């Protein structure tokens, strides 16, 4: 007995809405389902990039962590280069802002903020915490682990 694929029969707008509830890792994984799903991720109005899985932060693992974070940053940039949705409802990025990547990461964060601004972002969530604490190399007066913008429709 052949199984009918009802999900793929839904209109593209409905599929994109469903994909908007997933992380980018999950969204991109759906592109392998069929040719119809291959490029749907480019039109998702909610972009959520989870932090990469990292080993415990011992000194001997710092190089591994730095390499993984830089690959994660590169992957985010690649996804943003191909993203086509003109308006973003939500833009969420999470990665540990380690001192070993702070110079490169700082440049990329500014690029991401410009990207979000150009897409008329409605909600922005940045989480750079390291082991549940705000990194010492980022100045923050209220010690939040993450920041959600705009607080009152700055880009509205």
UniProtKB/TrEMBL annotation:
Question: What Pfam families is this protein classified in?
Answer: F-box (PF00646)
SUPFAM superfamilies per UniProt: F-box domain
Residue ranges of every copy of the F-box domain listed in the record: 4-52
Q: Which InterPro entries match?
A: F-box-like_dom_sf (IPR036047), F-box_AtFBL13-like (IPR053781), F-box_dom (IPR001810)
In terms of superkingdom, the source organism counts as: Eukaryota
Fetch the PANTHER family from UniProt: F-BOX PROTEIN-LIKE, UBIQUITIN-PROTEIN LIGASE
Q: What is this protein called?
A: F-box domain-containing protein
